[in-house]
Design brief:
By secondary structure, the chain is α/β, with parallel strands linked by helices. It has 21 helices and 14 strands. It folds into 2 domains: about 250 residues, Rossmann fold, CATH 3.40.50.300; about 210 residues, no CATH class. Strands 4-7-10-1-11 form a 5-stranded parallel sheet. A 3-stranded antiparallel sheet has the order 12-14-13.
Length: about 475
Amino acid sequence: MTRTTDATDLLTPPSDLPVTLGALRASGWESRSVAEEMAINLEKRIADGVPLSPGVKGFEDTVIPQLETAVLAGHDVILLGERGQAKTRLIRSLVDLLDEWLPIVTGSEINDDPYHPVSAAARAIVAEKGDGTPVSWIHRSGRYGEKLATPDTTIADLIGEVDPIKVAEGRYLSDELTIHYGLVPRVNRGIFAINELPDLAERIQVGLLNVLEERDIQIRGHRIRLPLDIVLVASANPEDYTNRGRIITPLKDRFGAQIRTHYPREVATELEIVRAEARLARTELPVTVPWFIEEVIVEASHLARRSPILNQRSGVSVRLTIANYESVVANALRRSLRTHEDVVVPRVSDLSAAVASTQGKIEIEALEEGREQEVISQLFAAATLLVFRESVALPEAGEIVEAFEGEVVAHTGDDLPSSTYLELLASVPALEPPTRRIAGDDASAAEMASALEFLLEGLHLTKRLNKDASGARALYRSRG
């Protein structure tokens, strides 16, 4: 009988693990630092050919080698890059480098090492019970802490504060047990991540430095020495890093490595990310996204990252590409439901739906304010032209242009059924061969309609046909 494993099972320690300090010693378990633990586990992964962050694409030859070097060196790391460059995902993937299970003193708030407890509560337990000290096991997922740095973040959030409830219970303020530990101590023997580090107030950065460097902190007059064992990983946006905020020099010096991330440099890489990340509308209808629609959506983002009209300091996130992909498919689904078609196939006219998902994710330079929709439309037109020129051979161009010199016109739109396009193909024979090459030999009626619209748009953008457009509706006609 095969037993499936669910998430709850993964967080339940195996029954054969030691449950007392004496049994832990007898098992031969050895204590080691987090940095050493991560380095040893990474060595095994590299030797076995297992990627460090299999879910992160496009960094295999750039960011990942630098990150592996930093981990092997035992360094704390700051990832520097614009928004939407998978910095947080990359940081979270480091959790897989921790041992699956780690022993702690049972009841410890800061994951005390049974061999070397650092909190007053854990030290007292070990002193009293010796080898009978109860030991619990924490999963690697519980050894990761994350905080988005904001100006209102306090020392109490990160380091700790006196707990008034514990004082009310009868403890003295001078008693270390009155302290409620913050996020950093609670991730002792683990990884702590700070996103957008420059947004953290400088006085708070000083307190963080004390924890990570001097190991000597004060909370409401308490002087506590906590030799915490933490690997610190932070992220920062270059704009914030240089202008809006800064990392104080002593804390900056704490990081052993600063690694620059980047957007996917190849269309194929970004397309792979989009296919994996896009959450398409839930429907029972089959969804087929033509190759040229996918490439146009991705190329539009790549062109945006090079456009002088857009503010490049804020970046053009991969999230933009994913949102546009989802919007275009959703618009095609809306058409299929209205026209009662049994398949969802996006067309060029569906790209108009990406205007709404693009606005808000790009920043237009001041001189171009008020032209957002026009700029976005120009980006998608340029991307369509680029894909058409690179991918479509058109020996029939002369025949098609000649056919349109009569009274032939082509109506397209995101609300027209596929049958409208098939009627055009039947009336203009010269359109069928190139449309079939674009769509493929086994293309459905909806795929042929999409390919035909892409062909007509390409003919317009290469100045062979005129186009009269109104929203997502268009009419293609002769240039005469």
